[in-house]
Amino acid sequence: YPSEFLMQKITEDNQIPVHLHVSVSLQYVAGLKGRALVEFFHSNIAEVENEELRHLMWSSVLFYKTPNVEVMACVLLSTKAIYFLLDDSFIHADEHQSDFWNKENSDCENSSFHLSCCFVLKLNDLQSVNVGLFDQYFRITGHSADHIVTCLTRDSYNTHTFIQQLMAVLSLLARTPSPEPVDKDFYSEFGSKNTGKMENYELIHSSRVKFIYPNEEEIGDLAFLVAEKMDGLTNLPSLNILLYVLAFQVNHFEGSAQNTSSLQPKTMILTSSDLFLFDEDYISYPLPEFAKEPPKRDKYQLADGRRIRDLDRVLMGYQTYPQALTFVFDDVQNQDLMHNLTLDHFGE
């Protein structure tokens, strides 16, 4: 251990996304290759001597206790736990985290050390994994509010690869087997007889961890919500969601010492007639079992919406992935001017 193939794969995956800024300590980790990376894991992160590093992924993460702070993390999956090596700026981002993170390193701040927090979720504590729409993110749930983390991969390939690796590692866990399931028909398996509402599709792993995938109704609910935001301009049956993608909106600040830009996480939804940007709550839904009250905000909050027919042009950047797109819309004072002219001219 480890095989050359695994070391090569982990080295290839050890790349920070170019558009995200990270601290010096995480830049150091990203510079490690092959055996040096494995040795770093065993000497600095691993909690048990005989655990094996199986997968590495860079991703933005959200914690249930701090749902408004998205932070960059190096996610390491071993045969014993999932480790989130966090950007040290996260600790100072929110004053309410003092009970969540033990700040014992205050005396080291002026030294030459670069410190990172490492959040550990043991595989034995894992209860469920919720996969988001179109595999853009997934949420890992443990036994308490401290053990809920969402990984915003913004990439279906990275999500799929991590889930596959996690299932493989969970298969190695020795847990007491569940009682034999009783044969059920389709309706009792997937639906509640009281409400008639379809439940999300669940896959219960041999380790008894639930993998929960969204069903078609979630898209239907989203389409209904989008139609509501459009003030009834479109009839619901003809409304199709063509694209759902987690992206960043670029806010450009001019006039400062150097022109800077900040990236605001947004959910972009494209329909056949409109383009929408939503602020989405990726961590609170579906509600964890221990939640005593619903979250303070809705799952989707409309940030911006424009009609496709007002789109003048789309500018594409020439940089490598991730691609930057600029949508330029006509700024028409009376939005429905063309709409009414068309109706008057062509009749019904």
TrEMBL record:
Q: Which GO terms describe its cellular component?
A: endosome membrane
The organism named in the record is Zosterops hypoxanthus
UniProt keyword annotation of Transcription present: no
One Pfam annotation reads PH_NISCH_C
Gene name linked to the record: Nisch_1
User: Residue limits of the Nischarin C-terminal PH domain?
Assistant: 241-347
Domain PLEKHM2 PH, residue spans: 114-178
* KW Cytoplasm (keyword) present: yes
Keywords on record: Cytoplasm
**What is a single molecular function from GO for this protein?**
kinesin binding
The record's InterPro entries line, in alphabetical order, gives: PH_domain-containing_M2, PH_NISCH_C, PH_PLEKHM2
Designated name of the protein: NISCH protein
- Locations listed in the record: Cytoplasm
Highest taxon of source: Eukaryota
Please give the biological process terms from Gene Ontology that the record holds.
Golgi organization; lysosome localization; regulation of protein localization
